[in-house]
Amino acid sequence: MTTYAAAHALPDILPPKRIRTGWVGFLLNNPTITFGLALLLCMLFLAVAAPWLGTVDPTALEPIKRNREPSWENWFGTDAFGRDIYSRVLYGARVSLTVGFSVALLASASGLFIGLVSGTIRRADSIIMRIMDGLMSIPPILLAIALMALTRASVENVIIAITIAEIPRVSRLVRGVVLTLREQPYVDAAISCGCRTPMLIWRHILPNTLAPLTVQATYICASAMITESILSFIGAGVPPIIPSWGNIMADGRTLFQIKPYIIFFPAVFLSLTVLAVNLLGDGFRDVLDPRKSKSA
Amino acid sequence: MFSYIARRVFATIPVMLVVALFVFSLLYIAPGDPAAVIAGDQASPEDVEKIRKSLGLDRPFLVRFSEWFFSLLQGDLGTSMFTGMPVSELIAQRVEPTLSLMLMTLFIAITVAVPIGVIAAWKSGTWIDRGIMAISVAGFSVPVFVVGYLLAYFLALELDWFPVQGYVSFSKGFWPWFETLVLPSIALGFVYIALIARITRATMLEVLSQDYIRTAKAKGMGQAGILFLHALKNAAVPVVTVIGIGIALLIGGAVVTESVFAIPGLGRLTIDAIVRRDYPLIQGLVVVFSFVYVLVNLLVDVIYTVIDPRIRY
């Protein structure tokens, strides 16, 4: 008589695994985006809610409180003019985020337009691309500096200068995408069905440029914030009266050896904000372009 | 190959022409009157007019551009409005610190970034890879002057390993020169290292999945041999491209780094020129920087043919 070893009792069914869909699922599946978004939203909150977060007027001079170390009264200390650095850093977030988002938006919009024109109209292409080649051979920061040297220091001018410096890269990218799309069978099909060029661009080409453009716009936002701080830091950016992170660091430059905290607080905020945006960009790239995410 | 180089050189001419035209017209439309700046607050309108005439600022755009451009071709970048010295001479005086800084940065960046990228690709998916990639994201996010100040604070002020600021000419000896350049080069190279390491890792990952790598493994070749002899050589083209493109980052970063570390180079000259609205000097600097950038990328194109014999022109 043979006996059979009893198999371990298996549960009737495996415990149900909850698969989340929608926004929550998306965020759970993409930790990079979640983390970057959370960090960016924190900064956005600090920037928007700055007046209600225990700040004082960021431009108020209080000579009696010059160069105070960080304390309960002035969390991040005070600078050489007695201005509260905590308040200045929080208000500085407004400048950086405004510049970052505006440049990302403006540069992608203009780059998209130029790229579409260049990619579809052959005759314009060679001229536009020669101009873009020329602009691209001027290092972007140098181009922004040169543009700022022409104009009055103001937030708007900083945005315009950085946008112009970023446009060539965006239009190159869009043009490249358009040129590959034009070879696609569905574009031929649309043309053979009598689709006119404007409609072809609007309905068949434009939507397909948006994914790489979104990724690029995110990186532009990050690099614009860095460029803004560099411009302000070397005195060619936002007017010194406006508390931007670059300006705060420029103010702390002379006192760096004895009061390093004046530079470190805005530096930490700037780095974290740029990190948040870069992480978002990496996350977007992984989601929108799965082919690339494997290798890079 | 010679005809290829000649064609590439020829192709850069329109690019440089666009740069020249752009730089010139930029400063042509600039608000603010340099003649008035030079004349000072006390000058009468006639004096200002006289200065404007003597500087040739009253002539039409195309005349001034063609004149400027032809003297540019002869190596004459004009005269600085503030110091009255030739721009080319002002630039030549400041070349050494910037050139030293850039070469040192290039050296440090390549020797650090390429092995890091290779290791990240080799150990891909492990914590070593993730750590290296996390550092590289940080490299993109921390601006150059922040790295500069952090290094200056901890390594120079607190630990006193390096001088905090300043520059010592190479002619005063190798060691003092080297010592002053270490921190600025690391600061400037940080983002560059991140960039090169990332592209090295990405290309190496692609190459390491190729059949000939498996063959090399199968015939018993050592890991180091596979990585550095077979794989890296085949991954070199994109890496060299990024090194060339990244020079733009170095040029932009040098302006800031020199200001953080008080290095009297071209970057500082640029900042001074902007503060004083010294247009000929700004023009000259942008043209020179762009020329160097175009030249480096031309060199990169030539290097392709050396590192990858499959590329024939």
Keywords:
heterodimer; A: about 300 residues; mainly alpha; about 0% strand; B: about 325 residues; 13 helices
Radius of gyration of chain A: 26 Å
Helix content of chain B: over 70%
Helix and strand run of chain A? HHHHHHHHHHH
- The total count of helices of chain B amounts to 13
Indicate the structural class of chain A.
mainly alpha
> Which segments of chain B are poorly predicted (pLDDT under 50) over 5 or more consecutive residues?
none
Tell me what portion of residues of chain A adopts beta-strand conformation. under 5%
Shape, per Cα inertia axes of chain A: flat
Q: Specify the oligomeric state.
A: heterodimer
First-last Cα distance of chain B: 6 Å
- What fraction strand of chain B? under 5%
Would you tell me the overall average pLDDT of chain A?
A: 83
Radius of gyration of chain B, in Å, reads 24 Å
Low-confidence stretches of chain A: none
Strand tally of chain A is 0
Work out the largest interface and the residue count of each chain. Answer: A-B, 46 and 58 residues
The mean pLDDT of chain B is: 83
Helix fraction bin of chain A: 55-70%
Count up the helices of chain A: 11
Summarize the structure in words.
The complex is a heterodimer of chains A (296) and B (313). Chain A is 69% helix and 0% strand. Chain A has helices at 22-29, 31-48, 85-120, 122-136, 140-150, 155-182, 185-192, 197-233, 245-252, 261-288, 290-295. Chain A is flat, with a radius of gyration of 26 Å. Chain B is mostly helical and 313 residues long. In chain B, helix 5 (87-122) packs antiparallel against helix 10 and helix 7 (144-158) crosses helix 8. The longest helix of chain B has 36 residues, at 87-122. Classes of the chains: A mainly alpha (296), B mainly alpha (313). At the A-B interface, helix 4, helix 5, helix 8 and helix 10 of A face helix 1, helix 6, helix 7, helix 8 and helix 11 of B.
